[in-house]
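Hi L., both proteins are below.
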Amino acid sequence: MSEPITYASAGVDVKAGDRAVELMKASVARAQRPEVVGGLGGFAGLFDASALRSMSRPVLATSTDGVGTKVAIAQAMDVHDTIGIDLVGMVVDDIVVSGAEPLFMTDYIACGKVVPERIAAIVSGIARGCELAGVALVGGETAEHPGLLGPEEYDVAGAATGVVEYDDVLGPQRVREGDAVIALASSGLHSNGYSLVRRVIAAAGWEWDRHVEELGRTIGEEALEPTRIYSRMLLDLIATDGVDVHALSHVTGGGLAANLGRVLPTGAMATIDRATWTPPAVFSLVQELGSVPLADLERTLNMGVGFVATVPGEQADRAVAASVELGVPAWVVGEVLADTGETGEEIVRGAKGVDGGAVRVTGNYRA
């Protein structure tokens, strides 16, 4: 008679999953808000929404995302405690685009084999990101998928919910001709375009532990630099006296022009001047190492701009100063004009199904 088949022999270790939960408890405890009801381990996370009763017309905002193939670099370098920060940034910073305050988040980790210490490291990064964003981590799921993923492989995803007063929703309806476009600096590559980056590094025959002089660290360390989380500082910027934020755009897949166009009204064109900033060294490194055409690079990577805001032109200096005071380098990158209907390689119209405004990118990056 053959040996009996158990869940463990099929590749799923329930005890390891329980051990991972125990290891992550301390991290999750730091990522809380007063509205959280109950603790870790319930079938659903509970969040007291009674405060919403004081709002006139509360609108819930929700978003879900992952971090793409950046996880492959984390796995290659065996560094797992930062990828969760990226996850939180990708999710909550989509929510704040509407002017909403992110409230709570859940995560999902799929792996080929539960290694409790690795899962706990991933969750510690998620919890740290939630702390930075002022978001409660109210629950999550770790799923072991032997045969579907290799023992060292995993992927992460998350979802969050926020709230905003209906009358305070930001977006194209607020944008006006003459608005200034304010750029907020990225912390690096963030979490988009890693299929391109990985292909370039592989084609060059580089290893992730290769030290790169112009970066001042290894290429792997640069690639794993966590995504900057903007939500908390942007909520403070929105609340700043003398700054009337009209629209925000999270610069993710598609690049600066395509994402800015999504928050502009039809009939408007934003002009972006490359000469107003110097992209960090990693972007020129990827371009030169892979002979990547500039147009492709700009459609794929953020080029040093992680977020943009539009404000009335006369408030531009105040908005820049407030952003810097809140800890994020910022500068005026362009302005909003009337759309003349022109076409050309440097003009983008419509992106990701949104019939928005146009964006023209001009000039050369500052050396």
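That was the first. Here is the second:
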Amino acid sequence: MSTVFDCSSPDKREAGLAAAANAVRAGGLVVLPTDTVYGIGADAFDAEAVRSLLAAKGRGPDMPVPVLVGSWSTVDGLVMSVPDQARALIEAFWPGGLSLVLPQAPSLNWNLGETRGTVNLRMPLHPVALDLLREVGPMAVSSANSTGQPPAGNVTEAEEQLGDRVQVYLDGGPSGDPVASTIVDLTQGTPRILRDGAVSRAELSDVLGVELEADR
């Protein structure tokens, strides 16, 4: 059975974060607010929990799960290296609506789907999400919706789609316009935009000093 916690109340927020952290550590699924859309999350290093996440969405491993982090420094332990372009984008847009695809550290024992040796990383600009991530570490997080349905912009929409497949729902209020994060691929040397989203192409170009191309 699922439990919903209203994080606008300090006491319920504290209880909700504790329940969510316990659920994640036990291999369960939680729904959390982010600065873009609501996400469904699990321990990034628990392969069975990630499989449960994909099953809850009705999605296969061919669409790998992104990873959310609670600090800039966490990234250093998850990737082979952090190139200067990635550092510049992190400093400019994290926490915020920018996801970066980088070669993952080969020593990591996780299974996020068919990633081809890469990982999609983001630090969300939402206090509830950041508190949870700082408590439990990196989480595999995808949009809180059934595949093919609109992303959830509030906890009610997430619960209607995912139901009891999720143990804990953290209600952080409406996400605003449900705009997904921009995804930039930095695995090939030349930055490429895989998905347009919350951070504009012009903003990215201003930071990097080059025009970014969309993936073809």
